Amino acid sequence: MGQFFTIKKIRIITLIVFVITPFLGFSQYTDVINSNRPGLSVSAYAVGKNVIQLEAGLRYEQSDHTLLNTQSNLWGTDISLRYGLLFEELEINYEGTFQNRKSTFGNLGIEESFWNFSRNRLGLKFLVYDRYKSPERNKPNIRSWRANNVFQLKNLIPSVSVYGGATFNLGENPFYLGDPTVSYRAMIATQSRLTPRFVLISNIAYDRISSNFPELSYLISLSHAFRNPKWSTFVEHQGIKSDRYSDILLRGGVAHLLKENLQVDINMGASFKNTPSRIFVTAGMSYRFDFHQDKEIPIEDQDADENGGAIKKNAMKKKKGDKKEKGSGAEDIDLGPSKKQLRKLKKEEKKKKKKKGKKKEDDGVIEF
Q1: β-sheet bridge partners, residue 72
Q2: What pLDDT is recorded for position 80?
Q3: Which DSSP state fits 304?
Q4: Tell me, what's the pLDDT at 300?
Q5: Are 49 and 26 in contact (CB under 8 A)?
Q6: Is beta strand 262-271 parallel, antiparallel or unpaired with respect to 110-129?
Q7: Helix %, strand %, coil % for the chain, to 5?
Q8: 129 exposure class (CB count in 10 Å sphere: 0-12, 13-18, 19+)
Q9: Which among 131, 211, 324, 355 counts the fewest CB atoms within 10 Å?
Q10: ω into residue 158 within 30 of 0, thus cis?
Q11: Can you say how many angstroms the Cα of residue 175 is from the centroid of all Cα atoms in its chain?
């Protein structure tokens, strides 16, 4: 990865944060849980005001170092507690990883075991730009199935959030020897909706800033929702660079929405090198305590066309053949009209045009 982690580039990242901060947006609260699990990437959006979200999992890792001739087994738990604070685009979150590591040193014939927090972090995340703030960008194109479902270059424009936090060490941490009690972390998170089914997330983070071993890392995650949107899968690429540890990791997994506030997941991954080689698997769940309430806007402050235009005559009258459809459990996913529905709409438009044409012909000279 070379020497791209330089002080100059760190200054550029910091400058970018201050440049984009004035462009404020509004987060999108969803009817179903929106979790950062599975994987380690962080979405650009907050959970929503007054929402408490718990994301936790159990993990196992096997790590072997060829140069040191060591074999290690790690058992642990990951936990993330998120809360929508003050307003929609802000959240405070705690992230912790507590694990036990048992290592065998082949050259010395001895074993070592210890446990502690390998991650103990508190921070704030703020959405500074929401790509889908405008309702017009969320409306499906009723004339084109392709426009709704095929990738377009403009879909790469992301929503952006910034993060600032601190990592805490409770005493001497065997995972990070020599680190101070408090070190700092900054991050930029972006999120792009490539198609209704594909979402791209990227994170660039500068961690342990005030320690002797600062760490720069990136995460790129691509997730896909199946035709049944309660199921989704993801693949994630992570790069880490510091004087203490550098690596490139790849992980992937699946998530299943059991209820609108409950999701379960499993993922596994590995490293690309053998100093050390790492193989890991994690299974977990996410649960949301939803105390969110939509902000009430006085009727005199509402725009006339904000909710679909003026109310038409007999709009409340029940139409024949109308049936109430049950939700799928993922109401925030709008796939737009299907190909069959579009063909039907086009046929109806052609019929209307033919009828208009006949009327014009009938309005000609009267035949005796």
Answers
A1: 63, 103
A2: 97
A3: T
A4: 56
A5: no
A6: unpaired
A7: 15, 45, 45
A8: buried
A9: 324
A10: no
A11: 28
Q: What six digits make up the tokens of 135?
A: 């309702």
Residue 27 has which token pair? 């987060």
- Cα–Cα distances (Å) from 8 to 4, 12, 13, 312, in that order, read 9, 6, 9, 60
pLDDT at 139: 63
Give kind and range of the element (H or E) at residue 280: strand 277-290
Residue keyed to tokens 């959240």: 91
- Give me the pLDDT at residue 4, please: 41
What predicted TM-score, i.e. pTM, was given to this entire model?
A: 0.73
Smallest Cα–Cα separation from 235: which of 41, 95, 34, 59? 41
CA atoms of 182 and 179, how far apart (whole Å): 8
What token pair was written down for 108?
């010395």
> What's 128-163 look like in SS3?
EECCCCCHHHHCCCCCCHHHHHCCCHHHHCCEEEEE
Q: What is the pLDDT of residue 365?
A: 47
The predicted pLDDT at position 322 comes to 47
Confidence (pLDDT) at 135: 64
Q: 67 is written with which tokens?
A: 């140069």
Nearest-CA neighbor of 273 among 236, 248, 240, 251?
A: 248
Tokens at 128, concatenated? 């500074």
Strand partners, 71: 64, 104
Predicted pLDDT at 323:
45
Mean pLDDT by 10 residues, the chain (368 residues): 45 39 48 91 94 96 90 95 93 96 86 90 96 70 63 89 94 87 96 92 96 95 93 96 94 96 96 91 96 69 52 52 41 52 73 66 47
Q: Where are the beta strands (DSSP E) in 90-230?
A: 90-105, 110-129, 159-168, 182-193, 198-207, 215-225
Give me the pLDDT at residue 269, please.
96
Q: Which fold has domain 7-290?
A: Porin (2.40.160)
Q: Kindly state the DSSP code that residue 25 receives in the 8-state scheme.
A: -
Q: Which of these, 272, 212, 279, lies nearest to 246 by C-alpha position?
A: 272
Tokens representing residue 121 in the block: 């972090």
